[in-house]
Amino acid sequence: MRFMIMLICITGCILASNADISPNPGTPGAADADLTQLDSFDIDALGGSGRSVGVGFDGTNFWVTDAVNTGGHLKILIITGTGPHTLVTSVDQNGTSGWGLRDLCWDGTYMYGSESTVIQYYDATYARAGSFTHSAVSPNRAMAWDGTYFYTASFGSDLYQVTWDGVSGSTASSTVWSPPVANGATYGMAYDAGGNCMWVSTATNPGDGMLYQYNMSGVLMASYDLTPESPTSGGCTMADYTVDIDQLWVLSQGAPDIVYCWETAVSLERDTWGSIKTVF
After folding, report:
1. Cβ 259 vs Cβ 276: under 8 Å
2. What's the rounded Cα separation, in Å, for the pair 143 and 103?
3. Could you give the CA distance from residue 225 to residue 43 in angstroms, rounded to a whole number?
4. φ and ψ at 278, to 5 degrees?
5. What is the dihedral of CA 76, 194, 252, 86, to 10 degrees?
6. How many CB atoms lie within 10 A of CB 45?
7. What's the pLDDT tens digit per position in 88-122?
8. How many domains, the chain?
C-alpha cells in the first residue's frame, strides 16, 4: 500500500510539471568555470504561462515559445531585445501541438523552430512561411544554424548536422556531428559566430545546470555550471547585450521561467579587426 501511494505521488508530480525536462540526469562532467550573469528577464511576468521552452533572437527582438496549457493555441512571445524588456506581441504557433516549438534560431530572414521531426519557419511578420522534415531525432529539441547547416539534438541523442535544400516541404539529410552531451539532456543549441563555436544548453531532472561549448568540428571545448540560476535549461540563443557584443542567452525552465544573459569570451567583430589592422 505504501508503495502504491508513493507511485501515485511521483506520477502526479511528473504530470504536474511545467518544464519539459529530461527523465534521466546522467553523469555530468566537472565544470571548467562559472559564467557571469549580465542580464535577465522574467517571461511569466511578460505573459508567459509557465511552460516556456525555447528562445531565439531576430536581431531586434527575442522570440520565446510558450506551450500554453489552458485553452487556445500555443504561442510565441515577442519580447524586446534591450532592457527594460517588454512584451511586443504574442502570436500563435499556427498548428503545433503538445509542447509545440522548442528551441529557435534565426537565419537573417526566417525564424526556425524545432517540433518532432519537423522544422517550422516564420517570417519577420510572425507568419508561418513553411516547414521541412528530417529523420535525425524525434522530438528534435535543440535548434541552431551556422550560416550553412542546421544543428539539432534531443535528450540522450547524438548532436546532428542537418543539410536542407531550402525548399519548403522537402526532407533534409542529417549526419552525426558529435556524441551525446555528458549529462544526456540536450535541449538548446546556439551558434556563436564571433567565437566560431557551438553552445549546448541542457535540461536535467534533477537539474545540474550544465552548459557545453564545442568547436565547429564537434569537439567538446569546455563545460560550465549555470546553477543556481538555470539548473534546468531550455533553449538558448546568441543576442546583443551591448552594441556589437553578442552574449549567450539561456532560458531557464523554472518557477518563474526566466531568460538569463551569460557573459562568454568577448570576440571582435570583423570591422573591429579591420580597424586594428589599420593601426599597425
Report:
1. no
2. 5
3. 22
4. -70, -25
5. -50
6. 12
7. 999 999 888 889 999 999 999 999 999 989 999 99
8. 1
Q: Evaluate whether residue 224 is within a structural domain.
A: yes
Residue 149 dihedral angles phi and psi, to the nearest 5°: -115, 155
> What cell numbers appear for 174 in the block?
542529417
User: Using CB atoms within 10 A of its CB, is residue 206 exposed (0-12), middle (13-18) or buried (19+)?
Assistant: exposed
Q: Which domain holds residue 251?
A: 30-279
For residue 163, being part of any structural domain is answered with yes
CATH of the domain at 90: 2.120.10.30
- Within a domain: 13: no
3-state secondary structure of 50: coil
Convert 161-194 to b/e letters by CB count within 10 Å (16 or more is b).
Answer: bbebeeeeeeebebeebbebbbbbbbbbbbbbeb
| Residue 199 placed within a domain | yes
Grid cell, residue 175, equals: 549526419
CA pseudo-torsion sign 182, 266, 236, 230: positive
User: For 11-47, what is each residue's pLDDT tens digit?
Assistant: 444 334 688 988 765 555 556 667 899 999 999 999 9
Cβ partners under 8 Å of residue 273, min gap 6: none
Instruction: Return the ∠ at Cα 203 (arms to 254 and 242), rounded to 5°.
Output: 70
Distant-in-sequence, close-in-space partners of 217: CB < 8 Å, separation ≥ 6: none
| Distance from C-alpha of 57 to C-alpha of 80, rounded to nearest angstrom | 10
Instruction: Tell me which residue of 123, 21, 138 sits closest to 63, measured CA to CA.
Output: 123
Question: pTM here?
Answer: 0.87
DSSP secondary structure of 86-100? -EEEEEE-SS--TT-
> End-to-end CA distance of the chain, in Å?
79
